[in-house]
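Consider the subject:
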Amino acid sequence: MLQSQSSHHPISSSFSLEIHSNYPEIVMATAGLAEQNSGSDRQNSLNSGLPARNVIPMVVEQSGMGERAFDLYSRLLRERIVFLGTPVDDNVADSLVAQLLFLESEDPEKDIQLYINSPGGSVTAGMAIYDTMQQIRPDVVTICYGLAASMGAFLLSAGTKGKRMSLPSSRIMIHQPLGGAQGQAVDIEIQAKEILYHKNTLNRLLAEHTDQPLDKIAADTERDFFMSAEEAKNYGLIDQVISK
């Protein structure tokens, strides 16, 4: 789902059926990652972008200093693996951008793997993630597991060409931003122009990443356009379907 922040109705390209109110959807989007010593202090780490209600497994690691317990996602972060596993909002974008920048500072030459299972979300938050992916020096390997819809599919296509992948049973969906506005005619006109701006921008970038004609992208995104992993590969959204 794609949403854009505004004082009126949120611009939304939502994976849900319709917009029910004038307020943005409230999503519990992040959970803190903690790195713990076996007997003493806790050190807060980067947010994982996972819902706070999720139970996060712990991993115990043996070293010369004794045992250390990590939450699973902090441990994977050390392996340069990050996750987008929720709808996209500002909190998720802040967390993911911070992780990408941290990993670039750790090693600007080594690939970062971004796993995506997301129905989409905020346009502006998604573009913050997108711009960071394009600006950092490491290649970003994108991997779809489950569902990459709307902004999730857009970010999937934004990985480094040749390194965009999907698990075989995943589903990928693209569509145009949807939304609405209320108020005076001038207010509605302003919001309509903003929706069209986002629509044209996303279509242009999708055309660049997929090597599809802009007219085809515009036509295909008029409605929800679902693809299998193999169809997404043929479309140019990804480069490889992962198999054993």
